[in-house]
Amino acid sequence: MTIYQNLIAGEWVGSDATKNINPSDTNEVVGLYADGTAEDTKNAIAAAKAAFPAWSRSGIWERHVILKKAGDEIMARKDELGALLAREEGKTLPEAIGETIRASQIFEFFAGEALRLAGEVIPSVRPNIGVEITRDPLGVIGIITPWNFPIAIPAWKIAPALCYGNTIVFKPAELVPACSWAIVDILHRAGLPKGVLNLVMGKGSVVGQAMLDSPDVAGITFTGSTGTGRRVAAASIEHNRKFQLEMGGKNPMVVLDDADLTVAVEAAANSGFFSTGQRCTASSRLIVTEGIHDKFVAALTQKLETLVVDNALKPGTHIGPVVDEKQLKTDTDYIEIGRQEGAKLAFGGELITRETPGFYLQPTLFTEATNQMRISREEIFGPVVSVIRVKDYEEALATANDTPFGLSAGIATTSLKHATHFKRNSEAGMVMVNLPTAGVDFHVPFGGRKGSSYGPREQGKYAAEFYTTVKTAYTLA
Ligand code: NDP
């Protein structure tokens, strides 16, 4: 079997490899992917450092052309790359193709941004002096990504880093190296100079840690768990380095008595269970007012009965498998915790077998949960959702905000007054009205508050905040 190697200083290197296993069919090896070492990581950082002076001064047209070419190739290969994504991560084929299209759009967007780089020229408060404000690239950016969006998250970090003139050392999650390898290959062939983009696949504790420990990494952009995010923060402060963290969520969706029941049920089913609930923006707390509670639970349970859990590549599958055995154990442990805490298991909770051996779990709905239970406070990151009954809008809002996280929050209501109040008073970074809490646009800022995020927003033109540093220059006329 071919070994998909690491890209360091423009060369494909590495002979030790790890198997990438399909969670829908654990007999299938998606491919063998290089298992990078700390030494590989040091070499990659050195290559990125050496490539920085030239790339930071490269013309914006060169950056535009490369990013555009990459976006075009990803779009042209969306079905093939989508199938690869579905095989390595387990989301359904339509979801995986959708994510691939989004990756292409992100490259297209930043290809455009490269041509729109600008600064400000303003008069000084002193006579005969001019002031220029410009944005400089940071230097070597370390990119560390999680397994749940194997192509979109790498795209939304790599594209802006390159657009603003940085060089990169990129470490994808060990579980899903295939899509990362594919986009690095595409960018390499699109004409990136040697050393500008380096890929080091391997373990977080080895490759990731070597990035955290290096004084030559000027910025780290990280998406993953809260625990690893804290390590990134601590190591970055030590090195006086800029960092950006996107971490977990325990996203609430409020359903008010006046909600359109169909809209509320569709939004809850989508954001709670699609992509197997493995989205940081998934709704895992459904906060429902008394008047609609029983109708809503009955309709959502009916909807869950219609959802097909099966192989991600099979037509008709709504929910693919859990990503691996470890995550499956976390999910089933939390189902047990929910039972012991006294929540009522209203639907699911059981493992299922299918034609192909995989990590299949029924969508699971708890009712009669309280907001103090562990299943309502801790991120599970699986298809496990709790319904919390509340008296009225005021209690719903207070419950929605009573969480250590603050990524996304939703409300289902036909009341303009409550929708407007919720948008203003939600403590989340992203608020959705009559929409799932998951599913965002690629050209606007993405990120949260409280324990969910740290540092500037990602995506859209707001990405410049992280990937550049501002310079103020004064000139005597
Ligand atoms: P992890 O934090 O375990 O891993 C994220 C990345 O960090 C992986 O590439 C991992 O490598 C790497 N890593 C692990 N240990 C270290 C270390 N010591 N030093 C440097 N890097 C390290 O999270 P998961 O990949 O398991 O992702 C799931 C989590 O991510 C969930 O909690 C979810 O909420 C969160 N998430 C948040 C998002 C957001 O935007 N807010 C979006 C997507 C996910 P390895 O692959 O080897 O483990």
Topology:
Blueprint: E1 3-4, E2 6-8, E3 11-13, E4 17-22, E5 25-34, H1 38-56, H2 60-76, H3 78-89, H4 93-114, E6 120-123, E7 129-137, E8 140-144, H5 152-163, E9 167-171, H6 177-189, E10 197-199, H7 204-213, E11 219-223, H8 226-238, E12 242-246, E13 251-255, H9 261-273, E14 283-289, H10 290-306, H11 325-341, E15 344-347, E16 351-352, E17 360-361, E18 364-369, H12 374-377, E19 384-390, H13 393-401, E20 408-412, H14 416-425, E21 430-433, E22 453-454, H15 464-467, E23 468-476
Parallel strand pairs: 1-5, 8-9, 8-11, 9-10, 11-12, 13-14, 13-20, 14-19, 18-19, 20-21
Antiparallel strand pairs: 2-3, 4-5, 6-7, 7-23, 12-22, 15-18, 16-17
Bound molecules: NADPH dihydro-nicotinamide-adenine-dinucleotide phosphate (NDP).
The site of NADPH dihydro-nicotinamide-adenine-dinucleotide phosphate has 28 residues, from helix 7 and helix 8.
How would you describe this structure to a colleague?
The protein contains 15 helices and 23 strands. The chain has 477 residues and is of the alpha/beta class. It folds into 2 domains: 3-247 and 452-476, Aldehyde Dehydrogenase, Chain A, domain 1, CATH 3.40.605; 251-433, Aldehyde Dehydrogenase, Chain A, domain 2 (3-Layer(aba) Sandwich). A 7-stranded mixed β-sheet has the order 15-18-19-14-13-20-21, sandwiched between helices. Strands 10-9-8-11-12-22 form a 6-stranded mixed β-sheet, with helices on both faces. Strands 1-5-4 form a 3-stranded mixed β-sheet, with helices on one face. Helix 1 (38-56) packs across helix 7 (204-213) and helix 2 runs antiparallel to helix 4 (93-114). The chain is globular, with a radius of gyration of 23 Å. The mean pLDDT is 98. NADPH dihydro-nicotinamide-adenine-dinucleotide phosphate (NDP) is lined by residues 144-148, 171, 173-174, 203-205, 208-209, 212, 223-225, 228, 231, 246-249, 280, 379, 381, 407, 452.
